[in-house]
Amino acid sequence: MLSLEEAKARLETAGQSHVLQFWAELSAEESNALLEEISKLQPEELLEHCRAAAEAASRHSSADGRLDARMKPVPPEFIGSVRKSEKEKLQIWGDEGFLQISQDKVAVLLLAGGQGTRLGVPYPKGMYSVWLPSGKTLYQIQAERIQKVQELANVKHGTRCTIPWYIMTSEFTLEPTEKFFKDNEYFGLCPSNVVMFEQRMIPAVGFDGKIILEKKNKIAMAPDGNGGLYRALVDNKILEDMERRGVEYLHVYCVDNILVKMADPVFIGFCVNKGADCGAKVVDKAYPAEPVGVVCSVDGLYQVIEYSEIRPETAELRGPGGELLFSAGNICNHFFTRDFLKDVAEYFESQLKQHVAIKKVPFVDGEGNLVKPTKPNGIKMEKFVFDVFQFSKKFVAFEVLREEEFSPLKNADGAPLDTPTTARRSLLAQHYRWALAAGGNFLDEQDKPIPPKHSMSQNEDPPVICEISPLVSYFGEGLEKLLKQKNLKSPFLLDENEAENLVKTT
């Protein structure tokens, strides 16, 4: 641990001596905690971080549209599509993906550094339940999808494959996530194949370029954004672990999408088939001004342009068929080769753009009193995972259907979008569609048929409650033998036990 003199020298070099202003008031335990925190800060990096934060905040304003003239959509030859690609191609890509999975070459990497603050809970988002009939959390749903896609690959190729699950947490989420997985026996996965690691924390900075103290002995820290992944891969020797396991391809995604297809064989196979080192799943924008980033190229380099950086007239541009020209909405669902991640970590991580977030950061004033600000007072700098697209030698995009693959959980109920209610509705509507497609018939309490409803609006509940366990079906496959011409009653929960019962009655 640093001595007090070493800590003083380090902070003076970075122009942050005020961090020790309450030193004389601290207990031995509090002093050691502060020295431990300072020891993790390199003076040169800290100096540059504080300078860049203050400078970036002074420039922080609405976009001026400078990128618009330089933007071009992703060329059609670099786009695959669940909706537009031929069924034969989708089958070829799926077969390729299953082959790579069966050979232990595929892993999934979860970005799980965020807390459930906006959901009104003090624990990590992955531990959240959207009140499905089964009561399953996001973590459990994702774990069971991994198990099922492994099983499908094993059956197809006669193997016993493993899809390692790497989970990037933060200082806030690591301990509760580890405990949650242990308490739930890793949801049936082998613990050695669930690898948790922690992303870096960086100081929050005031508009004057000074580090903010949240306590007399604690610096206000925040995760460095999901783009902190690339530094964390090196710091925690995750790339070495991947190499040791023989992993060549990574599916990277955010924790809050309840419809995410873990290690999607079609997406993996498409990217491998195209020889891509980097790929992104996208959805068609619902309308020109939808607040999602757009995947496109700028000066020949692929990147995600935030909706706030695009002028309305650019967002409204349409192609010859009337479709939006810039329609590829980013959903934080990516493919990377391990070699590409290694190159990014070694050569490009320092070049990643720093994004500014102006926040209300609780702090202690000069008298040591805790202040909860009523307006933004601090700067948090973040890197985004998609900012590495520009370094790709072969980038591709894969368009998927929003109603099948994208329903994020970001806000508490009461907000108009991305709530527990909308996430639950999306999953139950999907499972209802699967049951109908498999030939199931739903009856009401009087045993009368409920007319099937094959399409529903985003705000509309399906006519029945139907939940299908990922352990029974990964993406709607294998249900016909269970449900065809069967009469089902709401609420219908198709788990492994119910599947066995249906087989017996067939």
UniProtKB/TrEMBL annotation:
It holds the Pfam family UDPGP. GO terms for biological process: UDP-N-acetylglucosamine biosynthetic process. Transmembrane segments: none annotated. The keyword Transferase applies. GO terms for molecular function: UDP-N-acetylglucosamine diphosphorylase activity. SUPFAM superfamilies: Nucleotide-diphospho-sugar transferases. Keywords: Nucleotidyltransferase, Transferase. Belongs to the UDPGP type 1 family. This is UDP-N-acetylglucosamine pyrophosphorylase 1, like 1. It comes from Cyprinus carpio. The lineage of its organism: Eukaryota, Metazoa, Chordata, Craniata, Vertebrata.
